[in-house]
Structures are given as structure tokens and as C-alpha cells.
Amino acid sequence: MNRDLISLVQRQMPDFSKGQRLIGQYIIDHYDKAAFMTASKLGATVGVSESTVVRFASEIGYEGYPQLQRAIQEMIRNRLTSVQRIEVTNDQIGTSDVLSKVLNLDIEKIRRTLEETSRTDFNGAVDDIIAARRIYIMGVRSSSALAVFLSTYFNYIFDNVVLVNPSSTSELFEQILRIGPEDVFIAISFPRYSKRTVSAVHYCQSRGARIIAVTDSHLSPVAENADRVLLARSDMASFVDSLVAPLSIVNALIVSIGLKKRDEVADTFRRLEDIWDDYNVYEKVDGKRG
Predict the structure, then answer these.
(1) Sign for the pseudo-dihedral over CA of 233, 236, 237, 243
(2) Do 43 and 53 contact (CB within 8 A), yes or no?
């Protein structure tokens, strides 16, 4: 329904009351702003009561206004340009106590991620990764930070990790050329979704690899062909992508796999500690102050 929301509203417009038509027209014309408005604010903006907004949501098939609001957010997630995101920031956050507002928005993203992520898919992803011949990890643009973080820790646990980091489409397929049915491809992608990541998922699926998608929605183009979908909310607070919940999912994967391979991980880090000491990798801190 999310993708057809605008056409649904347009079709039902003749049957709406005067107040409902005002709401519907505002959503059609300003969906990027409506997506982050409370029912009360949307009603005040178009000149109707909050209860009229709630009835409008029910009229077009939603259980309540929160469900309609989420549907609008899903619809726009991959449509907003950076300029539109800046406008959304002004409406959603304003300029007062930005620290508190951004942190509270991130807390809400983690809460929703905890509610929405499938435990079956998460546990299955852990088992798939442990059993894989090779583990391919890909995330580009802002998602590249997550891919690098995941591959860094996986390299402490496994000796079969491939971080896919292409600078061109041809280089992408050179790096995943030999992927096969015994391998796992972890695709990390959030709005606006990378075409290179989506192309890589299609190729890896055609080669029979298991696909694990770390993304924000089942409507995400990397989720459509995935064997496991790990949902993490990344609803934008501005032109900056929120990676708090996605990073929590990545952390959970690392910790869960580390617990299952506890003995090997402990042995690896004992050896690493000796190497770090021998080569003076880290600054020694004795707790004393001069």
C-alpha cells in the first residue's frame, strides 16, 4: 500500500468530506513534510481538527494515524533529496536543544529496531555466516562505515572475509566474480539505496549465494531478494543518515558470532595482545596523572 498511497488518496478524493480533502491534498503536495507531522500539527496546518485527521487515516484503510504516518515515511524514504532533508530537519527538529532531540530520535530508532527485527532472521544470519566458505560484505557511501566496521571485527574471527569496496561497476563484479552457493553476501544499504549494492545482490543471488540484507525496510531493493533481512531504522533527522540502529544490529551480529566461536576468538586475541605489545601498537596508560 505504501507505494500506492498517493494514487489511493487521489482516487478517493471525490468521496472525502471537505476537511478530508484538505488533508489529502496536503499529503499529495507536501508528503515530505506531512511524514513527520503529528496528527495535531497536520490538522492545524490545513485547518481541521486532530480527530478529523485520525478519521482520515481510518477512511483510507489504516488502523490509526501512526500507521498512516509510517506509510508516508516509507514511501518517501528513497525519494528525498539532500535539500529536502534539510527542510525536514527544520520542521522536525528546529534549532533549540538539537542534542536532546537528535539523541531521543536515535533512542526511538533503536526501540523500533528491537521490535521489528526478526529473531528468526537474525539467528539464521548468524548460522549462515559461521557456515559460509567465504563472507562477502558490501556497503557504499554512508553505509561503507558499517561495512568496514563489520569486516574489521569479522577479520578477528574468520580468515575468509572479503570487503567489497569497488570504485567502479566493473571493479565490483571483479571482486565478487567467484561467489557461489557456499558463500554469504552481506548487503548493507539504507536510503538513498545504492544501485551498485542492488546490482551486486542480484548477481550474487544468481550465483546461488545466501543474501543477508541489513537495511531499513522489507520494501528496500536489497531486501526483496534476501534470504535473511535484518531491519534497522535509519529515518533521517536531517541530510545526515542516522547509523545508530544499524550499528547496533552490526554489533549484535559480531557479539552473537563471537559467543558461538568463543574459544577461537579468545585464542586470536591472546595472540594479538602479544603482537600489539611487541610492536608497541597502543599507548600504555597507567592511570597516573602528571
Answers:
(1) positive
(2) yes
Q: In degrees rounded to 5, what are phi and psi of residue 231?
A: -85, 135
Q: What is d(CA 182, CA 134) in angstroms, rounded to the nearest whole number?
A: 7
Q: Which residues partner with 229 through β-bridges?
A: 213
Does pLDDT of 259 surpass 60? Answer: yes
Query: Which residues does residue 163 pair with via DSSP β-bridges, in sequence order?
Result: 137
Over the stretch 55-78, which tens digit does the pLDDT of each residue have? 999 999 999 999 998 888 777 665
pTM for this entry:
0.75
**What is the sign, positive or negative, of the torsion defined by CA atoms of 22, 24, 30, 36?**
positive
Q: What is the pLDDT of residue 260?
A: 96
Q: How far apart, in whole angstroms, are the C-alpha atoms of residue 212 and residue 225?
A: 9
- Report CA torsion sign: 165, 168, 172, 175: negative
pLDDT band at 2 (very low <50, low <70, confident <90, very high): very low
- Is the CB of residue 34 less than 8 Å from the CB of residue 90? no
Backbone angle region of 280, left / alpha / beta, with phi > 0 → left and psi within -120 to 50 → alpha: left
How far is the first Cα of the chain from the last one, in angstroms, to the nearest whole number?
64
CB distance 34 to 91 below 8 Å: no
Please state, in angstroms and rounded to a whole number, the distance separating the CA atoms of residues 199 and 215: 15
Long-range contact set of residues 115-118: C-beta below 8 Å, sequence gap at least 24: 116/231, 116/233, 117/230, 117/231, 117/232, 117/249, 118/229, 118/230, 118/231
Per residue in 165-198, pLDDT (tens digit) is: 988 888 999 999 999 999 999 999 998 889 999 9
Letter for the amino acid at 252?
A: A
**Residue 191 φ/ψ, nearest 5 degrees:** -55, 140
